[in-house]
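$ fold --in a.seq
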Amino acid sequence: MKRLFIVLSIIAFPIILIGQNFQPYTLAFKTDKKIIEIKSALSSALSSHLFEVVGEYKPAKDSKRWIIVVTHKELLKAAELEGGLRGFAITLRVAITEEAEGTIVSFTTPEYWGRAYYEDSFDKVAQHYEKVQLAFKNAFSSITQYDGSGFGSKKGLTAKDLNHYHYMAMMPYFDDTEELASFETQAEAIKKIDNNLKKGVPDLQLVYKVNCPNRKITLYGFALGGENGESKFLPIIDISKPQHTAFLPYEVLVVDGEVHMLQGRFRIAIAFPDLTMGTFTKIMSTPGEIEDMLEKLIE
């Protein structure tokens, strides 16, 4: 019997690994409450479970959407281990979306985004992501019954898919970032951005700014306004149910004096992995328009 158990375990274990697919978003729970009734309770629950709420906003000026951006000590610890562009991973997003069947509370699936951003290094930080996932579950369970089902892709993506992900041939990978500027020091880069934000940058609204302790890493999140912003492209790409509200806001990373943004053709694709080429062509100008907006930060 013992020998049979060992054989079955050897057979089953790789099947579990090979068959495990990840979704970009997780459904926390559904409720009949409106955004205005639940967002404060949600922020409080997250804070009570060691998340730090770093920003909130209404994406695309849509009254039926709300986003809460969080960080967690485990996300910061992971980024400290690896540094560099892994700084893009120090925040995750919680979304509240009023849909026809009720209000959906969802969040960016930690392991999906962690694997996409850490790539070959994910195993080194996996334990931190497990703790973040558990913290999310406990936070939402303190409000109501937790769902935990994934969504955002019909089949989901495997660990292999997410490692060095790109939408298709000739499309950018995670580390094919756009370097918007380079400064002699981290402090100079941050000062430039912050000074411009104080004066006001057209079509950009600061949602959050997070520093990674013990690393020269600062991550900003921006709401994209104006005629080419969220109100233009979100209705075109966010057409499945539940909606992918937690896709936003858009990030800019300052690391070792360099100012980076993820290319739109990666950042949009990883958030909408089932996006058809036909839909992509409808927002063909969007990646360049986002870059044009974010370049104003360092002019």
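$ fold --in b.seq
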Amino acid sequence: MTKKDFWKTPYRKKNRFYIRKDDKPESLLFSTLPSFFRSIFNRKQAVLGAQNWIDLQEPKQKSHKPLVTWIGHASFLIQLEGLNILTDPIFGDPSWLFPRQLPPGISIEKLPFIDIVLISHNHRDHMDEASLSLLGKNYFTQFLVPYGDKHWFVKRQFKQVIEHEWWQTTKTSNKKKKSIRCTFLPAAHWSRRGLFDKNRSLWGSWMIESENYTIYFGGDTAYDSHFLAIGNAFSRIDIGLLPIGPCEPRSWMKYTHISSEEAGQAFLDINAHHFIPMHWGTFSFGIDYFNEPVDRLKAWWQNQQEQLHKKQLHTIKIGQQLLFDLPLISQPTNVFHRDKNDKQKEEQ
């Protein structure tokens, strides 16, 4: 397999997915326990600074230009071409062990009609059953999920569920027949819902494309060469939504989560123009102090001014709306792109 093709498809063995052939399911219980107890102490410190990161605004019903609202963690409301897209929705706590440090930027009751829900992977802080159950009552909402997760949704009577392997695309059109393409892309992470289903389903990131705009949602990931593969596959990326935490302890966090500095390098790798950081502040999963991921990102940004010419960093608050009035661009080209319809044709 050439370097160009490395991220085309994950390695699969005995119905489990791996990024590389020599990857093994990790056992991090004993290494994570000390960090968990330290994170409890950090939560008490977080309360002091958390209120400065809340800017709740009334959500718009729709927008044709990119309008991005951070709900918290990896949850965004992305409004584009009159369609409303929700990423990795979680409006409560993933478990009693990890309570929210910041309220959701939009309450689930105030959400506009959601056309598309994008799921990056099945961890409970990204695929939250309580939040999804409330969204799933509407028949017309599409749920685009990683390969292996569709059965979870079907079992709970979700109707419009489409699962994806890496580089597969689903098109959705608005009432004016303008389409949005959502392409499932690689990430360096893993999946699990229960005790025995480690890596039974896929994980990844998403590219959202309209005729004029391109938005990358990074999901949850460690730093790896998939960012360069994605950057090479798309001719232009306007907005990059990238995780920046938890950062510490780096000795084992580096295998599954990206640090602030690595997220900055990933932003350069994909060659995006606007950077919106996410996956920090909402829950205390590491031993970072509350502001650490965003403080480190700002410091990195200051030290990389030569490479960041004409690029912009937006450290938006919970609930804050950011409207982009970007120049019109041609449709980006995805070199590995396959529509779901093409996949179905291959299987017939």
